[in-house]
Design goal:
The chain is of the alpha/beta class. It folds into 2 domains: 200 residues, Quinone Oxidoreductase, Chain A, domain 1, CATH 3.90.180; 136 residues, 3-Layer(aba) Sandwich (Rossmann fold), CATH 3.40.50.720. Helices cover 30% and strands 25% of the residues. It has 12 helices and 18 strands. The strands form 4 sheets. Strands 3, 5, 6, 9, 10, 17 and 18 form a 7-stranded mixed sheet that branches. A 6-stranded parallel sheet has the order 13-12-11-14-15-16, with helices on both faces. A 3-stranded antiparallel sheet has the order 2-1-4. It starts with a strand and ends with a strand.
Length: 341
């Protein structure tokens, strides 16, 4: 079969790899119908050290179950399923607490002999705890929105939930990438009426307004902080969806006393402003890796009913063999998020 591998910065290839097969009785094999390129994939695309042997890549996919191990009971051959961006057993104490990203028997796609999601098929470890059956057929027009449950919509929701977004809170979302836009959508879904989106790409912020943003601030740094404070006096909640230190610093700067800053952008820094100012203003820093598996069934009904359309973040669609060009398009900000179909 064909699958995507990364060999180093700027070097993504689609190559022939062995077909996935069951290795454990808890495995399933899924034929991929839709996958995509994630903003977090761009970090290794920009900086990964060159290697002679490529590594499988991709962590968002949905598809049809083609085979299951003897212990798999929750899905069967022919089921349409979505997979969260990490696999998990669903039974350990962390999974039972809703923290599937810390599963004792879980792991990441594309490493330690596990397939990546950007390919024609995937062996899914811990299939019962990982896969969620979708009550629609594979020809549904909802596939793009259903795919966002694997990561970006669930991650935006995680940002909003951990920040405590409700109808009583004002919100600043930092970042107009797919996660940031999904965070806007999630905040509006939870009842927020004042949502400031900090972003500078007009086509993206226009979509953010359609998703529920009431204000857009294009300025960055101290200028951006001043603009948000001029509009709101500082917001109760901040959803930081970028992962850079300047984005985090802006998040701290726009939070009102007693506010909460939720970070869901993968941090590309090791130090940040968490000293006297944060302490003195009782600002809470929260967030982290989104346990998407915990949220999929909560968010699924609204996607199925069309009350939310997170799949609108996909603005380019390519076949699998054009994935290398998709990476470059996203790195050049010529595409918001690329769907692979």
């Amino acid at each position: 079969m064909r699958a995507t591998l990364i060999y180093g910065a700027g070097d993504v290839r689609v190559e022939d790899v062995p077909d996935p097969v069951l290795r454990a009785p808890s495995d399933a094999v899924v034929r991929v119908l839709r996958s995509c390129v994630c903003g977090s994939d761009l970090w290794p695309y920009a900086s990964r050290e060159a290697t002679e042997q490529g590594q499988r890549i991709g962590h968002e996919f949905l598809g049809v179950v083609e085979d299951t191990g003897a212990e798999v009971t929750t899905v069967k051959t022919g089921d349409l399923v979505v997979a969260p961006f990490v696999y998990s057993d669903g039974t350990c104490e962390f999974c039972r607490e809703g923290l599937h990203t810390s599963c004792r028997n879980g792991g990441n796609w594309g490493v330690h002999g596990v397939d990546g999601g950007q390919g024609e098929a995937v062996r899914v470890p811990q299939a019962d705890g990982t896969l969620v059956k979708l009550p629609v057929g594979e020809d549904t027009a909802l596939l793009p929105s259903l795919l966002t449950l694997s990561d970006v919509f669930s991650t935006g929701h995680h940002a909003a939930v951990t920040a405590g977004v409700s109808e009583r809170t004002t919100v600043t979302v930092i970042g107009d990438g797919a996660v940031g836009l999904c965070a806007v959508l999630a905040a509006r879904r939870l009842g927020a009426e004042r949502i400031v989106l900090m972003g500078r790409h007009r086509d993206r912020t226009d979509l953010g307004r359609e998703f529920g943003a009431t204000d857009v601030v294009a300025e960055r740094g101290e200028e951006g902080i001043a603009k948000v404070r001029e509009l709101t006096g500082g917001t109760h909640t901040v959803l930081e969806c970028v992962g850079t230190r300047p984005a985090f610093e802006m998040g701290i700067g726009v939070a009102r006393p007693g506010g909460r800053v939720s970070r869901v952008g993968v941090p590309q820094y090791t130090e940040g402003p968490i000293g006297r100012y944060v302490f003195g203003n009782n600002i809470t820093v929260t967030g982290g890796v989104a346990p998407a598996r915990n949220y999929i069934e909560q968010l699924l009904p609204d996607v199925l009913d069309g009350r939310v359309e997170p799949g609108r973040v996909f603005d380019v669609t390519v076949p699998l063999d054009e994935v290398p060009a998709a990476y470059q398009a996203m790195a050049d900000c010529k595409a918001l998020k690329v769907l692979v179909a």
